[in-house]
Amino acid sequence: MATTAYMRFNAVKMINQNLKEYLDDNGIKYAHMANKLNMTATNFSHILKNRQNINVEVYFKICDVLGLPENYLRYYSRVNPNDKKND
Q1: CATH-assigned architecture of domain 2-78
Q2: For 37, phi and psi rounded to 5 degrees?
Q3: What's the pLDDT tens digit per position in 9-18?
Q4: Cβ count near 12 (within 10 Å)
Q5: For residues 64 and 58, what is the distance between their CA atoms, to the nearest angstrom?
Q6: Where along the chain do its domains lie?
Q7: pLDDT tens column, 41-62
Q8: 10 Å Cβ neighbour count for 26?
Q9: Phi, psi (5° rounding) for residue 63?
Q10: Rounded to whole angstroms, what are the CA distances from 33 to 16, 42, 56, 79?
């Protein structure tokens, strides 16, 4: 049972990190997202810094606000512009 809780914690932590990277990569301000989610900038910052777990309701609302499929942030991967192949 402890392993399951640990796996869940790591999944949430990964989603929080992917969300932060997605926002940064797309130039979306954290305060703007907090406003759209009807939460304080402090609470939203705590989610991004893994100080507060994201709950399912907030997760779905984030996906809705960003216009993303519900599983997108689980698998989001930052692309390093330096890794692009030369044409």
Answers
A1: Orthogonal Bundle (1.10)
A2: -90, 0
A3: 578 888 898 9
A4: 17
A5: 10
A6: 2-78
A7: 999 999 999 898 888 899 999 9
A8: 8
A9: -60, -40
A10: 14, 12, 16, 22
